[in-house]
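User: ok so my PI wants both of these folded by tonight, can you help

Assistant: No problem, let's get them done. Here's the first:
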Amino acid sequence: MTWIKTIPLDEADEKLRRAMLDQRPFYPVEYSTPVHPTADGETSGIVASHSLIPDALFHAFATFGSLMSPDLPLERRHHEMIATMVSVTNRCHY
């Protein structure tokens, strides 16, 4: 759970709703099932923590999704390994 103010999808205005929904197709299908869903089954804290700035939410998560693209020369496992090492280096549990 994030400690900052967040806006759940059911309370989002159109701009935030579009940002939340439009970034999802960039991710592999495995990402559609939350590992740590919220009590209401909505977006996890890392996405929700960006809900006050919809443009940043979309661009940050769409960028990461694009970097995980199967069209790139690395295999999925290599992308995941790089992402994991970046998180470990930054002491981030995501």
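One down. Here's the second:
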Amino acid sequence: MSIDYASIARRTTRILFAAQSLGSAGFIAASTINSIVGAKLSGQAAWAGVPASVYQIGGAFAAFGWGYGMDRLGRRGGLTLGLIFGVLGAGVAGYALIAQSFGIFLAGMVLMGTANSAVQLGRFAAAEVNPPSQRGRAISNVVIGGTMGAIFGPLMVGPMGDWSKSLGIDELSGPYVASLILFAIAALVIWLWLRPDPRDVGREVAQLYPETTSENGARSIPMILRQPATMVAMSSMVIGQLTMVMLMVITSLHMKDHHHALGDISFVISSHTFGMFAFSILSGRLADRIGRAPVIVIGAVTLILACLTAPLSPDVLPISVALFLLGLGWNFCYVGGSTLLADQLSPSERARTQGFNDLMIGLTSGLGSLMSGFIFAALGYATVGVVSALVTVIPIALTLWWSMGRRAALQKASVQN
């Protein structure tokens, strides 16, 4: 009896979409106030970016481990375990606010970062069960699950804060309770319904497309990294994440300094995360239709525009538009880069290389989170925007270099034939 891989792929993508929706709502609800909590518990504005940095760095090293662990545990087991870490982390972070302990709060951030790194790898699980011509839209259909988080995550901050105050505890602890509940539901969704495991289906799908498999067996990560297409793919994701994080994590504190209420701050972050996820269907289909490189360049240019316009006004509307563009640019870089990376890997190379990629994303964005706090404290919000814009030139240059080299190689091959 023939196996209906298309049906399996659709079902797998739907389950991953649901888990991404729930998980992202939990992560975004927390990230809306992390810089505020960092400044409050540490007592120093310069340390406002430290929680996000610890979150990213913890997730970065965890991503490398998940890359290997998901080959052993399967995608279902790895994603479920990751979300359990999220439940623990949210609980620890919420308790830290009650105990007024910065150290305990950072421990919670490490656990939540570990959870997020596992959830983010779910996009590659969708790619591996689909044929090459549909990988862009498969990845985007999972990433778009973040739209739910973009809408509902920040909007939960105010009501959950009021709920916490009604119990006589710190209003900032409420969003972490919401995160805990959402992670628990997402873990149940993955464990109960992500069957058959995408790891096993992906191996079978790869046999139908042997051109995607390396003829020389599994390459080492250094060998893969030397490929120009891999450099472009990773740089677009790593630099895109770095740029987005540097500006996003400090915006809440910037608005707080301008006396905006939590409701205003959550609205701006909601517009940002809406830009991050809502247009994933567009970016994924464009990656399949016009190519991975144009999508990456569009994303990087949009990021630069966002970084240069965000500091122009502290008012809610203009900064909401700038942060929306910041999210949109990140999305194009992330989806385009993820699709291009998936194109380069055989089944035996996928999990560890994708884990290494997310390790680099986490390390650089962790560095960006840390830098943004110190730059903001010393030189202000505008300087954070300018520095972020300058960094984003890197993926544009690399993508143009790769595209011109590939075009020249194709022209040379056509002349020889």
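The mean pLDDT is 84. The chain is about 85% helix and 0% strand. Good luck tonight!
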